[in-house]
Amino acid sequence: MPDLPLANIRVLDLSRVFAMPYAGAYMADLGAEVIKVDSCQAQFMDTTRTLNGPYPGNDPGENYWDRAGTFQTLNRGKRSVTLDLRSDAALEILKQLVSVSDIVLENFTPRVMRRFGLDYANLKAVKPDLIMVSNTGYGHGGPWTDFGAMATALEPTHGAGAFMGYLDTGPDRSANDGGSSGSVPNKMGNSYTDFLASWTAQMAVMACLIHRVRTGQGMWIDLAMYQVGVSFLGEGLLDYAFNGRATRRLGNRHQSMSPHGCYPCLGDDQWVALAVRGDTEWQAFCQALGQPDMAGDTRFSKPLKRWRNQDALDAVISRWTETRTSYQVMETLQAAGVPAGPVLNALQLLADTHWRERGYFETVDHPPETGLGRQEYVSRGWRLSGADVKIRSGAPQLGDSNEYVLERLLGLDEGEVQGLADSGIIGSHPIGGSPAGAVPLQRQAELGWIVDYDPDWPGG
Amino acid sequence: MTSRQVTSGILGGLRVLDLGDGVSGPFCAKLLADYGAEVIKIEPPRLGDSARRAGPFAGDDPHPEKSIPFLYVNTNKRGVTLDINESSGRRLFEEMLVKVDILVENFSPSEASARALNYPTLAEINPTLVVTSIASFGQTGPYRDMEATDIVTTALSGLMYHSGDSDKEPLRNGLDQSLYVAGINGAVATLAAIFQRITTGRGQHADVSVAECLSSHLVQPVPYYNYMGAIKGRRPVRGSGFEELMPARDGYVIPSVQGSQPWSTVAGLIGLEELQDERFATGGGRIEHGEELNGLLIQGLAQWDRKALFQASGESRLVFGMAQDAGDLYHCPHLRERGFYVEVEHPVAGVADYPGLGPRLSAMEYQVTRPAPLLGQHNQEIFCGEMGYTKEDLTVLRQMGAI
């Protein structure tokens, strides 16, 4: 693959769950050989193989550990080797693998890394120019270094909730709020912080690869998700530093634009987002609504007046949007040069002409033994004119590259590999644990995990 | 002397022109600058970057050198003014173009074409150039020239549908998150192209879509539909248990059962005797007895201050979170000890501690060597000192409106 940026780069991906596995997947898209080091001991296997689903037709199936859709998205294009790191033999193999790799991604806690002896100093001894990302909740160093973390609880901890919340909720009881806003924190959800960590790790690794070519020097990247999260809220932090303002929760409103918000449309749970940036757009907006007189309404004639009278303004806009589909509102307002777009759910996004025409969703033909058939996945927010960056294959079946890695890369003989299999250090089926379950979709809807489902979905 | 070689910037020697406006392009270029690249920001004469007119402002004083978003996303850059639509301005721009490695811009595709910034034109001037174009919907497709702001791209991306409470309207993420996410994705694409150039010697075009960057977060909702026809939505009503924001005595916390500790540890931490009940020890049990559990949880958490609970959780190897605001973060002992904040002195806005780099690198010391540039601050340094123009030339150019 000479025309791919990461051709001839080998990544050893020891990571679990979302953030770092996704970084590894992008490196595979870019042409790197990414070896995911997993475990066939069920308790140490990447939890996304079993916890998050979803499964085709909501059926985990026999080899459920290779069939979860979120796992597939996060681990596409990789190879899988299994190693039970509780054994010294496995740790020795891992170090040998590090010695023939360029990049290591890991998200163990600092405590676990020390116990395994896999900290950067040790790995650098076997691969002097190694680039290694250690992704943790709070980083190596600092009073909270040994605190564990999950993205869902990290998000408000790193401050996202200080800048996100509905306006119509009660006052925040936080003593630190200073009464600057009348709402309580909310969450972006969807493991938002995991993605910030993933993008940040990718950026740092790319910079370090360039640095390594020029200097021969490797790098240890201490990636604290807490700190990464704060680095994406810089303007909020500086507002505090300069002005002492600690929160800015405006619902869907904006500090200067109005109208600005999310309005109900025809259909169940259908919404449109729109923003008016100034007086010219305001005039066009009123025309587009078929209410040219509103442009002269003294409550709305100037930006500041509109901003102060948003409750009245939003009521007028909602009455208009309610009788239209979200796409109709987009077309009408965009024709008038006003920013507007429907709030798309996954079904609508998958069908949207723009995403289709750009080929954003990429197709994978999965091996028959997975029973996954042909599936489409989210790709990435960018493309390169001079490189065929794409999803190269599905996620690996557990241990599918054990022989390749152990025999071809490390030169073990067949007998040694068989010995590792006999002692459960490597394998291609989970040892222990219980099969993944699937909650019926009707029950998921009752619990609010999903909002709707197609009862006639194939395999359902 | 230490044996460790530490540099102030690992991208030293990479030269970048930042034609970006607002947040997405400038944040991309700031990240490159933060890792050591030499970035020159080009702003239109007179008004400059539109971010200069965006609040909030330092001291709440609406002054073009005091815009907080501008101050944050333009550190470590030098700045010139240049009208690239005007012929002598364009000539200067093309002179700069042949000497740089990267151009970052975030015009809409039609605006970029109107400024003769399309990739083939630029590649003819400098075939080794990496051009990074960040646009709301990318360079192709039916929406390429649609009007958008953060809330509109977030809506169309699919992310917004999943943010907020299920019984209310979808809720926008704070602080123009889409533009920051696009900026860092742009930096990833840019550096991938630069790394590839080491082998090929060729430049290329990175086409970055703000909306698609956010769509890439949908690693659950998209397979939920593709695999089983199910549509994920927003979270069920807030205040409903674990992994959600719940009131503590002085603010909000997120109690969590995730991680590897048993239920007895969770119940023990919260400290309410009734929680030590076998019925709550499994996920299924917690769902089944959700209402009762929720009541006990509220009762238990009300006894705690959020920071004390967070500290106790960490010490018990649990993964509780807490809602912190900018003040908490600014004074956070953990971030302070990690050296996250960097004091920056700006000649007009004054001194403040700025948030630093997300990661810490073993052989790079993060520094802010320059505050955000004043409008046209480095015109003379760059045009005269580095490109050989005379001060008289600059006067002529200024009269023509080129700088």
Can you walk me through this structure?
The complex is a heterodimer of chains A (about 450) and B (about 400). Chain A has about 450 residues and is of the alpha/beta class. Chain A folds into two domains: about 10-160 and about 190-230 and about 360-445, Crotonobetainyl-coa:carnitine coa-transferase, domain 1 (Rossmann fold, 3-Layer(aba) Sandwich); about 260-265 and about 270-340, formyl-coa transferase, domain 3, CATH 3.30.1540.10. In chain A, about 35% of the residues lie in helices and about 10% in strands. Chain A contains 18 helices and 13 strands. Chain A has a six-stranded parallel β-sheet with strand order 3-2-1-4-5-6, sandwiched between helices. Chain A has a three-stranded antiparallel β-sheet with strand order 7-8-9, with helices on one face. The longest helix of chain A has 24 residues, at about 190-215. Chain A is globular. Chain B is of the alpha/beta class and about 400 residues long. Chain B folds into two domains: about 15-215 and about 335-400, Rossmann fold, CATH 3.40.50; about 245-320, formyl-coa transferase, domain 3 (2-Layer Sandwich), CATH 3.30.1540.10. Chain B has 17 helices and 13 strands. In chain B, the strands form three sheets. Chain B has a six-stranded parallel β-sheet, with helices on both faces. In chain B, strands 8-9-10 form a three-stranded antiparallel β-sheet, with helices on one face. In chain B, helix 1 crosses helix 7. The model of chain B has no long low-confidence stretch (mean pLDDT about 95). The interface between A and B is large, with 184 and 160 residues.
Shape of chain B: elongated
* Strand count of chain B: 13
Give unreliable regions of chain A as ranges: 171-181
Termini gap of chain B? 47 Å
How many strands, what sense, and barrel or not for the largest sheet of chain A? 6 strands, parallel
**What's the architecture of the largest domain in chain B in CATH terms?**
3-Layer(aba) Sandwich
